[in-house]
Design goal:
By secondary structure, the protein is an all-alpha fold. It has a domain at about 55-150 and about 200-258. It is about 80% helix and about 0% strand. The protein contains eleven helices and no strands. It is elongated. The two termini are about 25 Å apart.
């Protein structure tokens, strides 16, 4: 479980609904008007679906789940240690000596890059293939982030539409102040849900997906640098110092201790 998402979402709920109670707004009232939820959520979903292919929408929910369950963290320090070991073996025994070791590599990106180097493929070709792989991955990740962002853009607009409908309906009760006041307050419920769905849920999801993608891109860029260094036959110490620059200061301290 990604604690940042969980804790952040709880804080949003506390801030919104406890704050509403302190202002005299009963949270139960916000869910007592199904028309507002229907207009905002269903219409926003429909508009977002129109903006993307169907497979993008069906995959979006799985992508959103990754913001809560992103999987095991990327082990940069472990990858650096492994690459430095490979660099030492290649420098000492030749790059063909990595053939057996590469079979044990679990990361498919690193494994592909090393295998291409072992096969003697031109360095420029290796770099081009791996960079294209990274570019394609970024494009796939961008779809999920853009889907959440699009939903966040549409939701407030449909919230305003819901408020307009509510006000139109309220105008028919001008002779009854009680019904008029009730209709006006109900009209703004749709606006609340539109703004809440956008800023409290979907836009944060989009930002988190962008952050997760950036971390994986940086990780693969580090692996790419490692593969090219091994292929070039660089000194393992130079390889290590180069790859350590991809680590945050706290991670560098941990790597130094190890």
């Amino acid at each position: 479980m990604e604690l940042g998402n969980l804790v952040g979402f709880i804080l949003v709920l506390i801030g919104i609904f406890v704050g509403g109670l302190m202002k005299g707004v009963n949270p139960a009232y916000l869910v007592s008007i199904p028309a507002a939820l229907l207009i905002v959520i269903l219409s926003s979903l429909g508009a977002t679906m129109m903006s993307f292919k169907l497979k993008d929408t069906t995959g979006a929910f799985k992508v959103i789940l990754k913001t809560f369950l992103p999987g095991a963290p990327l082990d940069k320090v472990g990858a650096i240690k492994k690459i430095v070991e490979f660099a030492g073996t290649a420098r000492r025994d030749g790059i063909l000596a990595l053939e057996a070791e590469n079979g044990k590599v679990e990361d498919p990106f690193l494994k592909k890059g090393l295998q291409m180097a072992i096969d003697g493929i031109d360095p420029e070709a290796i770099e081009e293939v791996l960079k294209t792989d990274i570019k394609a991955m970024k494009a796939r990740h961008k779809i999920g982030a853009d889907w959440c962002q699009a939903f966040g853009v549409f939701a407030p607009t449909f919230g305003i539409i819901g408020a307009v409908f509510g006000l139109i309906a309220s105008m028919s009760h001008l002779s009854d102040p009680v019904l008029l006041a009730h209709g006006i307050s109900a009209a703004f419920v749709a606006t609340f849900w539109g703004v809440f769905m956008a800023n409290g849920i979907m836009l944060p999801f989009s930002n988190k997906l962008k952050r997760l993608s950036a971390e994986e891109v940086e990780y693969r860029a580090m692996l790419l640098e490692g593969v090219m260094s091994i292929q070039a036959g660089k000194n393992p110490r130079v390889v290590e110092e180069t790859l350590v620059t991809f680590l945050a200061p706290s991670e560098r301290e941990s790597a130094a201790k190890e």
